[in-house]
Amino acid sequence: MLAQEVVQSQRTRGEHCTKVKNSAPKYVEPTHYKNPPAFIKDLVTKSQLVDMTKSDSAYHARWMNGRRKAFYPDRQKAIRALATVFCRHINLVTHQVELSLSTAAHMAGLATLSKGEAERVAEDDLYQAKYSISRASRAFRDMVEMGWIRADRSWQVWDKHSGVWVDKYYEVTPVFFDALGITFERVERQRNKRLGLLKSQGLNSGLTPEQVGKMSISQIKADGKLRWRRKAFERNASLRDKKKLTRQMRVKTAQEQRHVAVKQVMATLGDKLGTVSKDAFTDMVNKEVASLRSFTGVERPPNERLN
C-alpha cells in the first residue's frame, strides 16, 4: 500500500491574514464630477444613511434564498459602499449602472493590491498593476441573489481577441430602490420625466417626430447595451495596442524608438506617402514619437538627437 503523500502548505504562520485591508470602505465623489440630478443626489444620501442590508427587502430576500444568517459586518460595509457607487451612476431611464464593476470597486475602496503586485510595480514603472476586486465581486453576488441587481448571463459578452469577458452589463431592480426606502411610484415618475427630456433633446437635435415617437424604454435600453459593449471592445483594443507598443518602445536607443514611429506614420499615410516632403515626413515622425511616448508612458532616452 502506497504511503499517503503529505501536502505541504505554502502559507507561513503569522503572514496569512483574513482581515480585510480596508475596514471602512467609502465612496468618495471625484472632483471632476458635475452636480447630479436631485433624485440621484437623494439616492446617494439615502444609501449612506440607510443600512440596506437590514431593510425588509433584504431580510425577505435572504429568507427566500435559504440564507438564515446575517451578513458579517465587513460584507455589510462592502455592500453599502458598492450600493452608493451604483446610486451615483444609475441611468434614470434604463436603470443601467453605467460603470464597470472593476471601476466601481476602486471608487468604493474595495480594490486591493497584493504584496507581490506592489513589489512588481516598484521594480517596473511601466508594469500595469492587477488589483483584486474579489471583495466587491462577493458583495455584488449577494446583491444579485437578493434581487437588487440584475446581471443576466445572456447579457455578458466574450472578447475573443483579448481573451476576457467585456465589462459586465447590469441594472438595478425595483427591489434595490425599495431597500433604500424609495417608492416605485417615485421611481417611475423620475423615469418618465427623464424620458420626456430625452425626447425633447431628440427633437432639438434634428430627429423627426416619428423617430422620437419610437423612443421607448426598451429601445433606449437595447441601444444602451450595444453602446456599452462597443465601448468595452474599443477599450480592450486600446489596451492591447498600448501593451504592444509599450513592448516595442521599451528599447535602449532613440533610433529604435524612431523606427517604431516611422512604421506607424508610413502605415497611416499608405499610398499618400509619395506626396509628402521629407521635412513634413520628419515632422510627422517627431510628433508620432512624442505621441507614442505619451500613450505608453515610456520616457525619452538620454542624449536623443532628432533626425
From TrEMBL:
List, as start-end ranges, the regions of compositional bias called Polar residues. 1-11
Query: Per the record, a Pfam family?
Result: IncFII_repA
Renumbered to this chain, region (Disordered) spans 1-23
Sorted alphabetically, the keyword list is: DNA replication
Q: Does the keyword Manganese apply?
A: no
What's an example GO BP annotation here?
Answer: DNA replication
Q: Which residues cross the membrane?
A: none
Specify the superkingdom: Bacteria
UniProt keyword annotation of Ligase present: no
Annotated protein name in UniProt: Replication initiation protein
Organism whose genome encodes this protein: Paraferrimonas haliotis
